[in-house]
Amino acid sequence: MAGAPTESLAAAGTGAKLSLCLRTPNPITMFRTFALLALAASASAFTPTMKVNGGLQTKIASAVGAAAVSAGVMAGAPTESLAAAGTGAKLSLFGQAPMSSPYSADSNMYSPYSPFGDGADSVYNAKDAEEVKFVIGKVKESANRFPNFKGYIQKKTWLEVYSESQRQMYELRRNMNYLADYKGTKQVKAATKDFYVKFEKMTDACRVKNQAAALAAYDEAKAAFDAYLSYL
User: Fold this and answer.
1) What sign results for the dihedral spanned by CA atoms 176, 177, 182, 188?
2) Which of 119, 179, 195, 215 is placed for a possible disulfide with 224 were both Cys, Cβ 3.0 to 4.6 Å?
3) pTM of whole model > 0.70?
4) Residues 169-196: pLDDT tens digits?
């Protein structure tokens, strides 16, 4: 039987020796065994209840468990694990073939954007003409929505000021930074920072519900935004 103790042949005059040939448990066999045990346990739940004495019930349960274990061993006996020299430990849960290592530098990468690939087949180019045009369009759309702040301040609907800044203009800062890096000039970066300072001044006034200060800060922020747009 697989995994059973085997006697070692001893030379004359030596004492008795016994070696155990234990094989590495096969994960697939263990899975099958547990599945059969679970199946046997679930099947017993649908069996009609019979009144039997305690001893007989114990014997029946033992016989069912032994049969399930025997069936699992017969379905797939443990096999020795064979590994090539110099390779690391690998395990396959869906067959006998070992799984590939996620850290191997495979030349046939599925994704051209993999850190292990050379990126030769990638189609994305950062800050190309099409992407820059798309970001400029988003900034101009934010500029069209910017006058909404003045109407909210005049009506003293302070919650709308927060809501407007969290809708389409939620990514305004990132888009402006993107274009400032693309242009790369000191004037654009300075105009970007100037707008941020004055826009935060407006939102701070709205937070404390100071209408006069908020309207004055809005005019400053609007002028700073127009100055930034002139560089696009």
Assistant:
1) positive
2) 195
3) no
4) 999 999 999 999 999 999 999 999 999 9
